[in-house]
UniProtKB/TrEMBL annotation:
<comment type="pathway">
    <text>Glycan biosynthesis; glycogen biosynthesis.</text>
</comment>
<dbReference type="GO" id="GO:0005978">
    <property type="term" value="P:glycogen biosynthetic process"/>
</dbReference>
<comment type="function">
    <text>Synthesizes alpha-1,4-glucan chains using ADP-glucose.</text>
</comment>
<dbReference type="Pfam" id="PF00534">
    <property type="entry name" value="Glycos_transf_1"/>
</dbReference>
<keyword id="KW-0328">Glycosyltransferase</keyword>
<feature type="domain" description="Starch synthase catalytic">
    <location>
        <begin position="35"/>
        <end position="269"/>
    </location>
</feature>
<dbReference type="GO" id="GO:0004373">
    <property type="term" value="F:alpha-1,4-glucan glucosyltransferase (UDP-glucose donor) activity"/>
</dbReference>
<dbReference type="GO" id="GO:0009011">
    <property type="term" value="F:alpha-1,4-glucan glucosyltransferase (ADP-glucose donor) activity"/>
</dbReference>
<dbReference type="InterPro" id="IPR001296">
    <property type="entry name" value="Glyco_trans_1"/>
</dbReference>
<feature type="domain" description="Glycosyl transferase family 1">
    <location>
        <begin position="320"/>
        <end position="464"/>
    </location>
</feature>
<dbReference type="Pfam" id="PF08323">
    <property type="entry name" value="Glyco_transf_5"/>
</dbReference>
<dbReference type="InterPro" id="IPR013534">
    <property type="entry name" value="Starch_synth_cat_dom"/>
</dbReference>
<keyword id="KW-0320">Glycogen biosynthesis</keyword>
<comment type="similarity">
    <text>Belongs to the glycosyltransferase 1 family. Bacterial/plant glycogen synthase subfamily.</text>
</comment>
<protein>
    <recommendedName>
        <fullName>Glycogen synthase</fullName>
        <ecNumber>2.4.1.21</ecNumber>
    </recommendedName>
</protein>
<keyword id="KW-0808">Transferase</keyword>
<dbReference type="InterPro" id="IPR011835">
    <property type="entry name" value="GS/SS"/>
</dbReference>
Length: 511
């Protein structure tokens, strides 16, 4: 049952006898409009920790005109206390150590339907979806997210008691990656798709947890979930899903190499050999319009930079920066993957060349502390805000001249596209989605090696452009027209959905 704190927002429906239930929806009234269950651990409308939350909010909406796409997310405290009504529509039994749950339905104002997996003991906690208030992983994360995967499988097999059944299940990253495995173990005829947003996070747990998670003994070997003596949720999804996607074409190639395969490159190469791995680039949502973004102090368009200057003036006051010199932005999680240590190494060079740096982000405590100290050493030239605020982040994109993004690896990246749309030229490593979305010297600057000397050379090229206003304006205009919006990703997803559904139909016909 829902917690007392959430009771005001959850409207339990009266119990219905079997005869009173409408027939289970098995076939779409519109044959081309397929039913898709999108399984995710984040959804920006309700709870967000990173880019997955943005994707989970934007992609289903972009696909909804073509498909009946619905979300499944855990019922975190932030979700059940969001003020949006939740109506109980399904009941799930327990299995091994995975407890019984309810399924609530939340209907959003724009028509998007979200199924909420309700179990207060598992999900209604302080902290983030993954860690507690002290930044420590929840000790029972394997239970919490295996339960999410099992719930998706139960919905797919029609065992959840809700009057809707998907024709395809789309699982996202390791927290949802057990869904394809549970579907396979339950012999579901519904095909599954797994999208890897970041291969480095795999959802590992002790091999002794297999019995708690009702994992068949036959699936605990090297061909199943076993990963160097542990169980890997992400490996389960890769092994059992009918297709795997990543969030850029280049990242799909990179993860098949030992350098970036995180120990799963062999399995991923096997997926390539049977045409079950591909990359579909992320987009940005329609709110990223500099002309109309309500977060900005003043809107602007290509060639009319008064609004850009107004946002730069806000950033200067907010971060205590001087009003002269090019403004470099860091809008990032402060973690090793993002190359923050490289930015720390080149910061003195930027200041010496007359530049300023504005930073907003949070992450690893050690990197937060070093970044904050850097700001204290350079008052007026480097301003640092530890934390995150959407309006301030957008104003920093809009007010800056360049974005610093020296990621060691980057599956897709959204920040570089946000920056481009707001006429801030990204300076980024040539990796993953950064290489797919930035054309060096045209709408941004790329460097190859993850070293400070290569990074400084790219910064110097950017400063040369800044000293030539006509060239700077031309690159800004190119950048503003570069990013993809989500509606442009619909066609490749639609083709993949249709392919998986056709394959499933052909397979069922042969059985």
């Amino acid at each position: 049952m829902a917690s007392a704190a959430a009771s005001a927002h959850i409207q339990a429906t009266p119990t219905l006898c079997a005869a009173a239930k409408p027939p289970l929806q098995m076939h779409s009234e519109h044959p081309q409009r397929k039913r898709v269950l999108f399984v995710t651990s984040e959804f920006a409308d309700l709870i967000k920790c990173g880019g997955l939350g943005d994707v989970s909010a934007a992609l289903p909406r972009a696909l909804s005109p073509q498909h009946d796409i619905r979300l499944l997310i855990p019922g975190y405290r932030q979700v059940v206390e969001s003020g949006r009504p939740i109506r109980i529509v399904g009941q799930l039994p327990g299995l091994a150590a995975l407890p019984p749950c309810q399924i609530g339905r939340m209907d959003l104002a724009d028509g998007l339907i979200v199924y909420v997996l309700l179990n207060p003991a598992l999900y209604e906690r302080n902290g983030s979806p993954y860690v507690d208030d002290q930044g420590r992983d929840w000790a029972d994360n394997h239970i919490r997210f295996a339960r999410l995967g099992l719930a998706a499988a139960e919905i797919a097999t029609g065992d959840a008691g809700i009057q809707w059944r998907p024709e395809l299940v789309h699982a996202n990253d390791w927290p949802a990656a057990m869904a394809p495995a549970y579907m396979a173990w339950r012999q579901a005829s519904t095909p599954s798709l797994l999208t890897i947003h970041n291969l480095a996070y795999q959802g590992l747990c002790d091999m002794r947890c297999a019995s708690e998670l009702a994992i068949p003994e036959s699936a605990c070997g090297v061909d199943g979930l076993e990963f160097y003596g542990q169980l890997s949720f992400l490996k389960a999804g890769i092994a059992y899903a009918q297709h795997v996607t990543t969030v850029s074409r280049r990242y799909a190639r990179e993860i098949t190499t030992p350098e970036q395969g995180c120990g799963l490159d062999g399995l991923l190469r096997a997926k390539v050999q049977i045409d079950q791995l591909s990359g579909i680039a992320n987009g940005i949502d329609e709110s990223w319009h500099p002309e109309s973004d309500p977060h900005l102090l003043q809107g602007f368009s290509a060639g009319d930079w008064a609004g850009k200057r107004a946002n730069a003036a806000y950033v200067q006051q907010w971060l205590g920066l001087d009003d002269d010199g090019p403004l470099f932005a860091v809008v990032s999680r402060l973690v090793q993957q993002k190359g923050i240590d490289l930015t720390l190494q080149v910061a003195e060079h930027i200041v010496a060349r007359g530049g300023r740096i504005g930073v907003i982000g949070q992450g690893e405590p050690a990197l937060e502390a070093v970044m904050a100290e850097l700001g204290r050493r350079h008052p007026g030239r480097i301003g640092v805000h530890i934390g995150f605020d959407e309006s301030d982040a957008r104003r920093l994109y809009a007010g800056s001249d360049f974005l610093l993004m020296p990621s060691r690896f980057e599956p897709c990246g959204l920040s570089q596209m946000y920056a481009q749309r707001y006429a801030s030229l990204p300076i980024a490593r040539c990796t993953g989605g950064l290489a797919d979305t930035i054309e060096d010297g045209v709408n941004g600057f790329l460097f190859d090696a993850p070293r400070a000397d290569a990074y400084r050379q790219a910064i110097d090229r950017a400063l040369q452009v800044f000293d030539h206003p006509e060239l700077l304006e031309a690159m800004r205009c190119q950048a503003m027209s570069a990013p993809l919006y989500w509606h442009q990703s619909v066609q490749p997803y639609d083709r993949l959905f249709q392919r998986l559904l056709s394959q499933a139909t052909a397979y069922r016909a042969l059985r």
